[in-house]
Design a protein that fits this description.
The chain is α+β, with helices and mostly antiparallel strands. It has five helices and ten strands. Helix 3 (about 140-145) crosses helix 4. The longest helix has 15 residues, at about 200-215.
């Protein structure tokens, strides 16, 4: 029987993984997913993800596609998901199996992606792996003023990890704002058509230069125009970052 294409919606806690993509000398989310799929389907499976996440970054929603014949357990989505989750480690979960068109692509068909970066200001050992602890509260109004300079289609080379091979540094940011949650936790929300490696963590670090260190809101625009990673702020720790949404026109 001919193979068909399937999308998997997954979520994972990234602390134990060197990001999404398969690595030669380190464990990744893609590797454990591929192994579980191959065990369940009893054939070699290669997944393609919606994008990379860096070491230690979490995902509340990420899609990956793979090709297989729609027979046996694949013809029973609920049973397939239950069996696959039983094979995966506790920190990786499959939420949905979706049969899609044969030319559907988890990476190239995504219309936008959203991230959150979480900060907390009350020392709490139980939330430390999920959020970045800061002793001082920043000027959030000023950081939201600076965030307006991020909006639109621009060259964001200044926030990209050095020596990254990409075809363009142009991204279209559609949302960028800081919001208080429960009056104690501060979350940065950002949505764009695509992101560069390390981009969100560098943006948050630059925002904190403005909110904590007295730089003006216009510093954000100055950094963007410079196209220099050295001009931007230090990247914040990975454990506060979550990929929260990947959107497709057909899902």
């Amino acid at each position: 029987m001919d193979k068909r294409r399937f999308f998997l919606e997954i979520a994972y806690f990234g602390q134990s993984y060197h990001g999404w993509q398969v690595q030669n000398n380190a464990i990744s989310v893609q590797e454990v997913l591929n192994v579980a799929l191959e065990t369940l389907l009893r054939e070699p499976i290669e997944t393609t993800g919606a994008g990379r996440t860096d070491t230690g970054v979490h995902a509340k929603q990420l899609y990956a596609h793979f090709d297989a014949a729609p027979v046996g357990i694949l013809a029973k989505p609920e049973r397939f998901i239950h069996s696959l989750n039983a094979l995966l480690p506790f920190d990786v979960a499959v939420k949905r199996l979706i049969e899609v068109a044969d030319d559907a692509h988890a990476r190239f068909d995504a219309t936008h992606r959203s991230y959150e970066y979480h900060l907390h200001f009350h020392k709490d050992p139980f939330i430390y792996p999920y959020s970045c602890f800061m002793r001082d509260r920043p000027d959030v109004d000023k950081m939201n003023e600076a965030a307006q300079f991020l909006l639109g289609r621009q060259d964001f080379e200044c926030f990209s990890k050095s020596h990254t091979q990409v075809f363009t540094n142009i991204c279209d940011i559609r949302r960028a704002e800081w919001l208080w949650h429960n009056e104690q936790d501060l979350v940065f929300h950002i949505t764009a058509d695509r992101f560069l490696r390390n981009m969100v963590r560098a943006i948050v670090g630059t925002s904190l230069e403005i909110g904590l260190k007295g730089k003006p809101a216009s510093f954000m625009q100055e950094v963007i125009k410079s196209k220099s990673r050295g001009k931007a702020g230090v990247s914040v720790p990975a454990h506060g970052l979550y990929l929260t949404e990947v959107a497709y026109p057909y899902i």
